[in-house]
Amino acid sequence: MKALFRKNQKKKQKKATESSHQVSTEPVEPHPLPSTSTSITTQQAAPHPQPSKPHEDASELSEQFFSIVKEISEATDLLSPLKSACALMIRGIQAMRAAHGNTVAWIELCEQLEHHLVQLEAHRSELQKIPSIKNDGCLKALEYYFSVITEVIKNASWAISGEESKIISSIKHSSVAQTEKEEMGRYQTMMENAWQAYSIEMKRLITLKVKEVGDQLEEYEKAHTRATPGQLPEGDYGVVGPDSKIAYGDRIDLCEEGTRVEVLDAIRTWATDYESNSQIFWLNDAAGTGKSTIAATIANEWSLNNRLAGRFFFSPNSRITQTTKEFCRLVSNDIAKNQPSLTKTIQDEIQLVLSEEHVWFEVQLQRLIIDPVRTLEDGRVFIVVDALDNCVLSEERRGLLNAFIQHLPSAPRLKLLLTSRPVQDISDVLTLSPLVHGSDLQLLNVRHSYHRDIHIFVDKRLSNIPKISYEHRKMIIEKSGGLFLYAATVCRMLEKGRHRLDTLKIISDIGSTDKLERRMDILYLSVLKQALIDKDAGDMMMSVLSMIIAAYQPISSNTISRFLPNNTYVEDFVQDLGGVLKDGHPDRPIKVLHPTFREFILSDEDRANGFLLHPAQSAAAMAYACISTLEHMLGDGLFQLDKPDRLLARNDDIEGVDRLIQKSTTAAERYASAFWAHHVAASDMSPDLWSRVTKLLSQKYLNWVELMSWRGSIGLCIEGLSRLRRISNNQINSNRDSQDSLIVRHAHQFVVQHQSIIIESALQTYCMALFFTPRDSPLFMGYRERYRDRQPKIMTPSSVEWESHIALGGHSSIVYQLIFSPDGSRLISIDQEGILQLWNTETGSLAGKPFRGGKKSDIPVTGGCKFSVDGQQFGFWNDPSGLHIRYSYNGEPVFPPLPWPAAWPFTFSSTLSHFIGAKDSSITQWDIKHGMEAQKTRHAGAGFKCDEVAISPDDGMIVIVGCHEEEKITRGQILLWRLSTFQQVASCELPRVPHYPLDYVGTSFSPDSGRFAIGIIHGTESIPGTAILYDAKTGKEIEVMQGVHLRARWTPVVFCPLSRYLAHNSWKFSIVIREQKTGETISTLYGHKDSIIHLSFSPDSKRLASVSSDQTLRVWNVETGEALNTILSGYTGIVRYCALSLDWDHFASTAPLHPIRLYDMRGGASGRDSAEPANNGGMGDYAIIGAAYMDSIVAIRSQTDAGAMLWDTSTGTNRVHTLPTRDYVVSVAFSPNGEMIAAVLSAPILRIWDAKTFAYTKDFEVGITRHRDGGVFFSPDSTLIGAYHTASATVWDVKTEQIMLLYSSSALYDYDFVKLCAISSDNSRATGVDHRSLVLVWDLDPITNRSVQVTLSKHRSEPSAAFSPTDPSLLAVTLLPDIMLWRVAEELQLIMKIEAPKGLYGKLSFSYDGQYLAYGPLVWDVSTTSPVLYAEDLPPTSFNAIGLQAHSFLFYKDGWICSAFPQGSLLPVPSELRGLEMTRHWYAFGEKVIFMNQFGEPILVDLSSILAQARQ
Predict the structure, then answer these.
(1) Is the entire prediction scored with pTM above 0.85?
(2) 8 Å CB contact between 221 and 285
(3) Which of 166, 591, 809, 1018 is the most buried (most CB within 10 A)?
(4) CA distance 1223 to 838
(5) How far apart are CA 1052 and CA 1074, in angstroms?
(6) For the ranges 334-338, 840-844, 914-918, 1173-1177, the one whose mean pLDDT is highest
(7) 3-state secondary structure of 887
C-alpha cells in the first residue's frame, strides 16, 4: 500500500520529468517527430503558458488523494469531508489560474470565487468533525486561505466595477496596463502561499490516514479481480480491458428530463406490449440525432426496474466495440450482473466457451445469452444494442442480426432494442423480418418540432452558467436545426471553455441556410482555435490530437505524455479540447465524442482550415513514439519468470500473469507493444523510421514476442507484422531480398510458423521456436548466439530453410482441395479427414474455427467447396451434417446446415443472392440470406443422377451434367435449363466411353456465357481424358479435345476473361491454346518436363501461368506463346494440389506431409534453390523405426533408397553413416553389447551390420510378407536375435545361425499378424501376441518349441511384453487398458493386473533388479503382492543400468514432449509436425527423443541438460 501511495504521489511529476528519468537509466536515441499538420507550422514551437509550481502541486495533491479514495465507498465517514475540502481547494486554485494570463476572465473571476467560498465554508464544518483535525494546523491554514480568497474577491470586484460593455471592449482592443499585471501577480502570490501552507498540512493528514484507506483498497482489489468473468484490467491494450465501459455505454449522457418524450414513450409502449410478436425495436436515423443517448437512457431505466438483461454500445473509440468478437461475452457478463440468479450459469458457460476453440458467434449467442435468459421466470427482460453501424464489417452486422432473428422466438420473454443508421445491409435484413418494430420512427425531423427536446436540453445544461442569457439559449436551439449533436457540442464548449463570449459570437454568425455539416465544421474549428492559447504552440497541440485520432485503441493523456516527453502540456490541451473530447482524467482513455470530428479533422485542407491531420504523418509519429517506448522497456527477464530451476512452463501453468503484467508495465508500454507495427505500416515509411524498425527487430524482437505471448495477444503480432511485411515488399521492391526485407519477412514467418508454440509458452520463444529458424537468417543469427544456453541440444540432417512463403499447418492428413476467394483474401483447404480450414491470406492465420467433418474409411466426407461470385460466402457439403453456407470473413454459418447428401453438387449464382443445388434428380434454388427455398424444386427426370451443376456468368442458364444410374457406363447427359424459369432449353448426350464409368470434372463457362466446357475422366486418372466445348445456348457440341490430363477437383479448361482464348493441358506436358468460339487450336506451349496441374490467365488476359509436377511455375505470353519472366523464381517443391488467386497476388500449394505453402506474389516471390527430392514429397509413408545404444542412435526413414542413418549423439555429428539397402527398412535394433545393428527389411530379410565398421555381416530369411509390419530385437546377452514379419516369428542363434524358434500363424487375412516381443534373460523363453489376442510363450528349444498360451479379450492397442531380468518365469504383457503379470509354468498363471490410464503409450520395461515395472512414463513397484505406483521426484536408479537400452520416462501429450521425472511439460513439438501420427513418428530413449519432420527427415532432441536443471 505504501508503494502504491508513493507511486500516486509521483504521478503528476512524471509529466515533466519522465523523459530525463528514462535517459538516466538508458540512453534515448532522439527521433524526429514528423509534423502532423502542414497547415500549422512554426520555426520553433513556443511553449504553452507555464503554470506556476503551486498550481502543479495542487493538481498533484488532488490526483494522488483521489486516486487512493476513488475506489472506496462514498459512505466512508473519515474520507468524505477530506475529499470535499480538497476538491474545493483545487477549484479555487484553478479559478485563479484561469484568470492568470487571460484578462477576459476577470469578468467571471468574482462569481467563481464567491461561489467557491460559499461551498468551502459549507464543508468546513464537516472537516471539523474529524477528531484528528480539531485544533490542527490544517484548519489554521484553511482559515488563512479563506482570508486570501476574500481579499482577491474584493480587489477583483473593484477591478471590474463600471459599465461591463466598456470594459469588455477595452479588454478586447487594448493591452492590459502594467500595473494591472503586477496586481494580478500579487494576488496570485497570495493564493499560492496560502495554498502551500494548506497543502503541507493536507499531505501530513493524508499520510496519517492512508493506511486505513490502503487496507480497504486492497480488499477492493482482491474482490475486483474475481468479480466479473472475462473482465480484464484497465489499460491492457489489445484485449478487453477498460473498453468494457465503452461497450456498456457507461459514459454516455442520458436524455435530459422532458426530452425525447415521444420516442421514449414509443419504446416503453413496445416494451410492455406482451401480445405483440415484435421482439426487436429498431431505432434508425442519421448520425448525431441522439440515438445513443436514447439507448443509454432506456438501458438505465430498465436497469433501475430490474428489466435490463444486457447492453452493447458499438463505438469507433475501441477495437472491441467495432466488432462482434467480444459481443456475446460482454453482454453475458452484463446479464450476470443485472440478473443475479443467472450469474453461476453464465460464469460456468463462459468458462466452457473460453476453453473451446473458435466457438461460432451464433453458438455463443445461444449458449451465453439466449439459453440463460430463457430460464428466467419473472416478466420480460431487454437487451440494448446501440449503433450497430459502427461495427466495421457488414458480414458481422448481418451475422448478428440473423442470429438474433433466428433465436429470439425461442426466448419469448426477451426483447431487443437496436439503434443504427439506416445502412443498406442492416435494412436488408431487418425490413424483411416480422419481428421488427419501429423502423419508420424518425428523430431528425424539424417539422415534428423536436426543437422542444433540444430546448429542454439546452436550458438545463446552460441556465446556471453565468452570462448565458435566454436569448443566447434560444439562438443555440434555432441553430441546431434539430440535431442533438450540434446542441450537445455547443453546451460542452460553453461549459468547458473559457471563451464563452467568443463562442456565442461564432454561433450567432452561423447562417440559417448553412447545412448541418457546415455548422458542425464551424463549431469544430472554434473549439480548435480556442484551445490554442499560444498561437506558437500549434504543432504541440496538433501532435496531441494526432495521437488521439491515430490510436487504434483509446489512450489516456498520461500515455500521450509518455509518447511525447517534450510536450509537457498534454493534459492542458486535452482539457481545452473538452468540446470534442471526453474524459480528461489523466489515467482514463480519451474518447472522441462523435465520429464526425474525426471526419472533419481528416477531411481536406479547405474543410479543416488549418487543422488538417495527415494520417500517414500521424501514424509515423505514433510509430516513433511506440518504438522508443519499446526500446527502453523490452529486455531479458521481463517478469523474472524464466527461472533456471524449473521447466519452461506453459503460460497457463503460471498463476497471476495478468496481474503481474498490469503492475509491471504502463498503459503506454502495453499500447506500444500491441500496435507499433500497425502504425509503422500505416505511415509513409521514411528511411529513418525503417532503420528504427530493423533495429528494434534485430535487438528486441524475441522480447516483444515473449511479452505478447504473456498477454495472450500473438494475433496482434501476426496482424501487425503481416501489414509490415506487405508494406516492406512494396517499399523495397527494387531489392526484395535485401537484408531489411528478409528481417521483416522472417519476423512475420516466425510468429506464423510457431504461433502454436509461442501461444502456449512465452519462454519457448527463446528455445524450441528459435531453434527452428534458418541458420543464415539476418534476423536470428544474433539471437541464436545470445540465447544459446536456453536451447536444448537438437540435431537435424539439414538446416532449416525458409522460402518466401508462409507455412500453414493444422492438417493431419493429405490436403486435396485448395481454393481462393475471388478477391484473394481467403484461402480454404480441405483434407482427407474432412477438416476444412479458412485462412486469412494477408496474415497467414486462421480466419475462423476449423470445421471437423470426421472421416469414413478413406472416403472424404467434406468437399465440393465453392465461393460465391462476390466472395462474401462460401459453401461446402459434409456427410452427415449437410450443406453449409458460411461467411467468408470469419467462417461463421449464414444459417444452419441444410439437409444434403454427401458429394451432391451445388453452385452459386453470379448476380443473384441464390445458389442452386442438386439431389438425385431434384434441382432446387435457395436464397443465401435466409436459407429458404426461393423457387419450387424441379425434377430432371426419373432415374437421373446429377453429378455436376453450373450457372452461366450472366445467370441465364443452368448446366446440369449427369446420367441415368442404370446406364452410367454407357450414357451421360447434359441438360440446359433457363435459370429464371427452371425450364429446359436443350439436352445432349455425352460421348460413349466403352468399359469405363464416366466421371465429370470442372464445368467452366466463357466470360460472355456463350460457351462451356466439361472434362471427362475415363475410369482412372492414369488414362488421358477428354474435354468437350459446347454452345451454352443450344447445347451443341463444338469441339472434342482429346489427351487432356485430368484429375478430380481440377478445372480442365480455363477461359481467358478479356480475350478470345481458352487453354487446357495435354498429356504430353504441353499447354494448348484454343479459340473460344470454335475450339480451333491457336498454339501449343512446350517447356514443362512433367504433368501440368494448374492453369490460370492473368487479370489483364495477356499472360498465362502454368504449374507443373516438375516443380516450376511458368508464365507465357498468350498471343505469342513466348515464355516470360516467372512470378515465382526457383522451384515450388513437390506439388500435389495448388491454386493461384484470380489477381495473381497469392499462390498456394500442398504435398503429402507438407504444410500448405502460401506465397505472396506481389513484387515477385522466391521458391527453393533446387528441386525437392522426389522421395521427400511423394506419397510414401514415413515412420520412425529407431534403436539406441549409449550415445548412438539409428533412425530409419521408410523409403526405398533411404537406408538407415546412424548418428553419434555424443559429438553432435548429424549423419555418421548410412547403412545401404534398396528395401524398405521395417525395424531396426542395436544389440545390448553395442556390437551389432540389425534391421528387418521388406525383402523380407533380417540383415546384420557391424556397429563399428558398418560392414555387412549376414542375412536371415524371415518368410513371406504382405505388409511393412515387423520387428527385430536381441536377447539381453546379445547371443540370440528374434524377428517377426506379418504372421511369422523366428529366433536365431546369432553366431551359429541355428533357428531356435519358428512360428507361423494361420494368416488367412491381410490383417492377421504375430508380434514377437521379448526373450528371457536366460535365453530359455520367448513371448509374443497375435491378432487373436493370443499370448504365447515358447520354450526356445529347436527340437520341441513347446508353448503355453492364453487367449484374452480383444484389444485395440499395440501389444508389448517383457521378462523380468532376475526371474525368467515372470512375464509382463500389455494389452491395453490392462498391464498383466504372469507366472510362466505348465500354464500361464495371472498374478497381477494393473489398469493403465487411458491414452497411455510407451515401452514396457523391468528395472535391472526386477523390483519395478515401467510402462511409458509410469512406474510400479511389483515386488509385493499388489502393485504400488511409484511417486518419487526422481526415477528409480535401477533403470539406469549400463549395457541395457535405457528406459525413457519421456512421453508425448497434446503437442508437447513431457517428463514424468520431474513431472511437467518440457518442449513443444513444432506445429507442422503435430499433425503427424506421433506413435509412428516418435521414438524416445533415455533422455533423448527423435521425431520426423514433414520431409521425412529425423530430428534428434537431447533433453538431458533441461532435465538436469529441473532436478536441481
Answers:
(1) no
(2) no
(3) 809
(4) 40
(5) 13
(6) 334-338
(7) strand
